[in-house]
């Protein structure tokens, strides 16, 4: 039986949970390597399943552990687990040769031996299929994203032990992530006290924008001589396009943020 583990507890008793994250109950937390393997096999299974169900993966396509492990940038262990689950689900089948066949209809199909690539599964060749970042870095990003979404709604207390159990890691890993988030101003902690986050008030947002309005123009003036004219004109064109658009997509906003805070 799986359960959701609380990462943060609000003053009103409401809990902040990572969406759609279930973990198998156990007597002790998984090691970091076990956690990485678990998350990777789930990702591999999802990618392959979507390709099979959508028809992107051709019927009869031969699935072998080694080529799939190379494609996903992992060891064979998570690939083997993912294939076993797909076989139990009836989406792939065994045959006389090595590996499995894509066979969602459980019919008679001829083995189709092709070089396994992004194309065989209807994926973009530039798409990174598995998150290979260190576990501590992923936890930092996930907790940061959860906090960014909830601090507008109140004041929250973060419990290191609950977060460690949720992610299956030590408290030291969680503490390191929270200390990095403190440097970003997302959480705060006094000596011998608890980690706190929020609330994000309208006054704080206004003060933040006032500070940025003072600092960013000067930062741009100092950086501009180091950038080519073509780069600056392309950035300016994207800003003008966003200003004239009725609505900007999340990708367009992120590109503008990248232009300003990463490229400059």
Automatic annotation (TrEMBL):
<keyword id="KW-0804">Transcription</keyword>
<feature type="region of interest" description="Disordered">
    <location>
        <begin position="1"/>
        <end position="35"/>
    </location>
</feature>
<dbReference type="GO" id="GO:0003677">
    <property type="term" value="F:DNA binding"/>
</dbReference>
<dbReference type="InterPro" id="IPR008920">
    <property type="entry name" value="TF_FadR/GntR_C"/>
</dbReference>
<dbReference type="GO" id="GO:0003700">
    <property type="term" value="F:DNA-binding transcription factor activity"/>
</dbReference>
<keyword id="KW-0805">Transcription regulation</keyword>
<keyword id="KW-0238">DNA-binding</keyword>
<protein>
    <submittedName>
        <fullName>Regulatory protein, GntR</fullName>
    </submittedName>
</protein>
<feature type="domain" description="HTH gntR-type">
    <location>
        <begin position="38"/>
        <end position="105"/>
    </location>
</feature>
<dbReference type="InterPro" id="IPR000524">
    <property type="entry name" value="Tscrpt_reg_HTH_GntR"/>
</dbReference>
<dbReference type="InterPro" id="IPR036388">
    <property type="entry name" value="WH-like_DNA-bd_sf"/>
</dbReference>
<dbReference type="Pfam" id="PF00392">
    <property type="entry name" value="GntR"/>
</dbReference>
<dbReference type="InterPro" id="IPR036390">
    <property type="entry name" value="WH_DNA-bd_sf"/>
</dbReference>
